[in-house]
Amino acid sequence: HLLxxxxxxxxxxxxxxxxxxxxPARRSRVIDYIEENLEADLKVAELAEVACLSRxxxxxxxxxxxxxxxxxxxASRRLMHGRTLLxxxxxxxxxxxxxxxxxxxxxFGRAFRRQxxxxxxxxxxxxS
Length: 128
Description:
With 128 residues, the protein is mostly helical. The protein has helices spanning 2-6, 24-36, 44-51, 55-66, 70-85, 93-99, 105-116, 120-127. The N and C termini lie far apart (66 Å).
């Protein structure tokens, strides 16, 4: 305060995001990292490191910015990746489930049906 009030140097204050959300640069960096690593294990600690924040602050800021927790967002993106993989008839449903980091084909099927409204097999048949 003293420097900005009485100094000849003009200090520019960075705008503070009152909501506590991730900055656009951090959000972009984290989302790009998630997209590049959808088929790998992603931990919140790893994503927080990409954002250069503590795990707690990152999780809170991520949810404020995107409306979902980091794990909810990653699960949603993996299901969308699964939809893309279903277009390849050479991949089995089990292989797609494992590539999308689900523990089994049944777990993938339940999550897929919950989000998309139909089973992965039905979705694949409709693509043909």
